[in-house]
Each structure stands twice: as C-alpha cells, then as structure tokens.
Amino acid sequence: RVYVYVASYDPLRIYVFQDGLVRFDTCMYKSASKHISNRFIHLTNYSVNKKNNEYMANSDEAVQQGHKWRLKAFWRYLRESRVDSERVWESTIDVVVKTIIASESNVNHNIKSLVRRRSCVHELF
After folding, report:
1. 26-55 as b/e, with b when 16 or more CB fall inside 10 Å?
2. Could you read off the pLDDT of 33-85 as tens digits, one per residue?
3. Which of 51, 56, 46, 41 is nearest to 23 (CA)?
C-alpha cells in the first residue's frame, strides 16, 4: 500500500509518502486450477488471512516478520537480497503518476462542473 496525495489536478501536483504497508499471502502461490478457490493464496487482505492458522501477526511492522511489514522494512529486505530497491521505487512512482494522469481529464471535468471552490477538493489515495 502506497499513500498518494493529489494536492491539485490543474496544475497537477502529486505527493507520494515514502512509507506504507506490504502485506503477504499466508500461503505460497500455486497456479494449478484446483487452488483457484483458496483465498489465502490469492488475497492479502487482513480480514481474510487472519482466519488462516498460518497467519503470523507482526508486533513491530518495522521488522521483517509476519504477514504485514512497513514498506521501509520491505525496501531493507530487497537491499539485503541485492535487489535494486531504488529502481523498484521509481517504477512504483511511475505507475502512480501514470494512473493519476489516466484519470486527470475525468477528474478535472468533474471538479470544474461540480465543485464551487477548487481549493476545497482533496483526495487521499
């Protein structure tokens, strides 16, 4: 989970918080069709995975344990695994920006037609 604040659409101003959450499935992924209904393989939602006996709570999200980590702990894990975490972060930012740009014309249209004071429009994604 990456937190994004769009301060303005016109001009476009996007802020991305450098921390967030990483959630992991409680079961290893298997592509065989017999596993298609196993929610623990396909979903990372806490409300789903907490029901799995394999779920491991994490008392400190800053460490690399359990099924929910802080994003900063994940970056540290990637660096320790010799993965270029900067490149992964840059790719993440690229997806965020492109996603916001893809919605820009619709959001701008709605802001201009439905909102009296643009300074009062704020969204957190």
Report:
1. beeeeeeeeeeeeebeeebeeeebeeeeee
2. 776 766 666 566 666 767 777 777 777 766 777 778 888 889 999 999 999 99
3. 46
